[in-house]
Structure formats: C-alpha cells, structure tokens
Specification:
Elements (H helix, E strand, L loop, with lengths): L1 H27 L15 E8 L10 E4 L2 E12 L2 E9 L9 E6 L6 E6 L14 E2 L4 E2 L4 H13 L2 H15 L3 H20 L1 H20 L1 H7 L2 H21 L1 H9 L3 H42 L17 H11 L4
Helix pairs in contact: 7-8
C-alpha cells in the first residue's frame, strides 16, 4: 500500500512538472519564432520597402508578382514616420524600378502579403539588389475598423434594399418569360433556316465576287468612259442637240432663249388656278343650296302661283290688311 501511494504521488508530481514546463515554453515562443511552412525562397537578395503602415504584416509573409511567389518578408522595423520592410527576393527575378508595392489580403480574415504591381510592358530599368521602393510607390492596407464600418454602412445604409429595388425594376421592364421563350424560338428558327441556306449565301457572295472581278477587269474601259475628255464630249453633244431643237422649233427657241417673260403669265395662271380650285371646292355646297331653293321655292310657286299676304301696315304702324282685302274683293282679285 505504501509503495502504491508513493507511485501515485510521483506520477502526479511528474504531470505537474510537465504542465509547468509546457506553460513556460508557450510563454517563451512567439509567432515569429515558428518556422515558415514555405521553407524560404532559396538563393535570394534583399530589397527594402517603405510603408506608412503595415498593420499585421508578419515576417515570412509572401511577396507576389504576376501571380507568382517571388520572395518573403524577412524583417520589419520602424524608421521615423515609416516602416522599413526588408524582403528577400529570389535571385533572377527582375523587378521594374517603377514597381508599386501594396499590402493585400485575399479575404477579410485571410493571410496578409505584399503584391508588386507594374505596367503591362516592361523593358527596364530594374531594381538592383539592395534597392529600395520608397513610400510614394507603396500603399498601406486600410484599417480593419474602416473596412468593418464600410461593410456596416453597406448593409445598414439601404444599399441592399436599393439593389433589390433595382432588380425589381429590371424584372418589371423585362418581357415575360413566355415572350422571351417565343422570341428565342423565332430566333432559333431563323438561325436554323439561315444555317440550312448557306448554299444560297455562298452563291450570293460568289455573285458579288464575280461582279467585282468583272468590274475590275473592265476598269480601264470604265476609266475611259468617265475620263475628262469623254465627259466633255457628252456635254458638248447634249448642248448641240438642245441648240438644234431650239432652232427647229422657234417657240421652244424663244422660251429657251428668253423665257423670263412667261413668269408673270405663269403667276397669273397660278392665281387663276387657285381661284378655280376654291370655286371647285365650294361647288358641292353651292349646288346643294341651289337645288334646295329650286325644290322648295321655285317649283311650288310655278305649280300654284299665288301670294299669301298676311299683314299690311301703314307708315304709322296701323294694320290695314282688312281694308285691302275688301278692296281686292271689290275688284274681283280675291274671292
């Protein structure tokens, strides 16, 4: 029993000692002391980079250019207002002298690395070993708090709702799916017919080619037809023909030589035509009025000529129609 108790006591003491040693070891090891899984870049030379801020850039971080890992961060040190970053670059790597160094992260919580950006065409000069990229050619990463603030503003500032509203508006103006399907069906049929009639297209293109070849073969003849002497010949021919016709027909000749005297006459004819056009336009209405007058007034009077006297007044306004009726009856004019 005593031996078993001693063994248990020794085991507990050993475990406590291991825990203390492990704790001490953890407090003595820093993240920078851990070996890099990359295993370095092989033979390299050093370059200096100046940044206004490096945030959480660790030693051993990658140096990328054109999508390739060309080096790693070796050390960081504060020098006044800037941070000097020493990187090891693989030998044989040509870095343009006007390169721009940027500290980036692939994701919000991803690993930080240095990206070397340059133009599309590089013909030198290049940075020599031990060269330095000054702070005016570097860009520091944004503060994490600023990034989170921008993200929070994007989420809470209504941007997502605006995007949703925009998508709703786009969906409202876009045609209905069945219309798009019908349009796609028609287009597919047209393309199918076009693909089936490629022989006709080839024949048309061959015709264009043959026409162009024929015109090209007759280029000298066409140049002769449209040359300056030929154009002058046809112009003189037209002038001579018109001159002969003007001499044969004196009236045409007089108009041809001095037709300005016809301008007043033509203006008068135009005015007369305008008046005649007005009469022609009013003729249907006038004809209808004349026909109505003949039908309702002239014809009834011709069939039964009579005068219906309803009232006769003197200059003073006295009604004398009765006296006139008696007088006419006495004369036998009325019954």
């Amino acid at each position: 029993m005593k031996r078993s108790a001693r063994w248990k006591t020794g085991a507990v003491a050993t475990m406590l000692g291991c825990c203390v040693l492990a704790t001490c070891a953890c407090t003595a090891v820093r993240p920078d002391d851990l070996p890099s899984v990359r295993g370095g870049v092989g033979a390299s030379h050093q370059l200096g980079l100046q940044f206004a801020s490096t945030m959480n850039l660790p030693t051993g971080a990658d140096v990328m250019m054109d999508g390739l890992r060309v080096g790693e961060v070796e050390s960081l040190s504060v020098a006044g207002k800037f941070v000097d970053v020493t990187v090891g670059v693989k030998d044989g790597t040509k870095i343009p002298a006007d390169v721009h160094a940027v500290i980036r992260q692939n994701t919000l919580l991803g690993d930080t690395y240095i990206a070397l950006d340059h133009g599309t065409v590089v013909h030198g000069p290049y940075l020599p070993p031990g060269g330095t990229v000054t702070v005016d050619h570097t860009s520091s990463p944004p503060q994490l708090e600023d990034t989170m603030a921008v993200l929070a503003y994007f989420v809470n500032g209504g941007s997502i709702q605006k995007i949703e509203d925009s998508m709703t508006g786009i969906n409202a103006v876009m045609p209905k799916p069945r219309d798009v399907q019908r349009l796609a069906t028609v287009v597919a049929g047209d393309m199918r017919d076009l693909a089936g009639d490629t022989n006709e297209i080839d024949r048309m293109l061959n015709g264009f080619f043959a026409t162009g070849a024929a015109i090209d073969a007759k280029g000298q003849t066409l140049a002769t037809l449209f040359s300056q002497p030929t154009v002058h010949y046809w112009r003189r021919t037209a002038v001579n023909i018109v001159s002969y016709i003007s001499q044969i027909l004196p009236s045409v000749g007089s108009v041809y030589e001095g037709g300005l005297w016809m301008v007043p006459m033509l203006n008068s004819l135009a005015a007369t035509g305008a008046v005649g056009r007005g009469i022609w336009d009013d003729a249907p209405a006038d004809t209808a009025a004349l026909s109505d007058f003949l039908r309702t007034t002239v014809l009834p009077f011709a069939q039964n000529p009579s005068v219906d006297i309803r009232s006769i007044n003197t200059a003073e306004g006295d009604e004398i129609v009765g006296d006139v009726e008696n007088l006419m009856r006495m004369l036998g004019a009325v019954k």
